[in-house]
Amino acid sequence: MDIIIVCHTEFGFVSPKKHIIYDKNFIPGVKDGVLNLLKLADKHNAKISFALCPETAPYFPKKINHEIGLHIHPGWQEVSFNGFKWFSGDRYLREKCKPTINSNFLKDFSYSEQLEMIRNGKECLFSKFSKEPKFFVPGRWSFNNDTAKALVDAGFNCVPSIFVGSKTDYSSHNHPRIRLPYFPDKENLQKRGSMPILFVPVSMTIFGGAASPEGAILYGFGWLKACFLEYFNQGVPLFHLYLHSPSMTDPYYTSIMDNFLTFVSKKKDVNFKFVSEIKEYPEIKVRTNIWPYIVRINKQLLKTFLNKYLILR
């Protein structure tokens, strides 16, 4: 099995309730978060693919043995969550580009505006690191046919941020939850086709939660291990985990990440890869296997579902 770890590199911090607050005034979300993750990667001989927002480039280490990609949060809007407020968007792109709308979702922009942001973001990272970003991650998972076309025209060939088990702007419940990387059809991004850009789905748990250390506060660490085992035990050739750099400023999440890397490193034939090293795999038959989840039901998981049920009531 190949394992890729994609870190969305953004400003921010972790609140006392373990929520990630993407406050642009908190620079350690990039500086300290990245360095802490690099220490874990060195400890476990793991590879990290960092998706950088252009505005974070000045605070990212220039010489690392890991790859970089481009991450874009368009627009400029105030966000309120759990008593915190911050602005979502990208300072660099806000100054560099002059979009006709102010939205946090790439799909809302025209093809030409998306292409302008993508090209400017790419040029920003190249000017800072003297190498082109290897892949692209859209902010808020927002993506449409124009985005795919703009990425191809801007020279990108990989998008490692596709949600397949949940409803998004480019995906639906009709997808199989466990899906391998694929080249999409230019008319229908959910189907296989011949567009020269590889879609790499995020690994998903049985209830739609993405494989991430950040999900442990909701589902418990055992649930993340169960997700990995569901993939590993039936020979799925790729496991894709993602996280945000601010999470690595908090001891709780760094401990979860450390424990996960320790757990998977003990498995035979597990290889850490960069996103740029991932190719199409031969199709295999996979199925939902609930047993790893059943034996790892935990108090945190039960608490989350109980709270959700009571809220719905």
Would you give an account of this structure?
- It is a single chain.
- With 313 residues, this protein is an alpha/beta fold.
- The chain has one domain: TIM Barrel.
- Helix content is 32%, strand content 18%.
- It has 9 helices and 12 strands.
- The strands form 4 sheets. Strands 1, 4, 5, 8, 11 and 12 form a 6-stranded parallel beta sheet that branches.
- A hairpin with a 5-residue loop joins strand 2 and strand 3.
- The longest helix has 19 residues.
- It starts with a strand and ends with a helix.
**CATH architectural category:** Alpha-Beta Barrel
> What Rg do the Cα atoms give?
19 Å
Secondary-structure-based class equals alpha/beta
- Total of domains: 1
Catalogue the unreliable spans: none
Mean pLDDT: 91
CATH-assigned homologous superfamily: Glycoside hydrolase/deacetylase
Tertiary shape:
globular
Characterize the biggest β-sheet. Answer: 6 strands, parallel
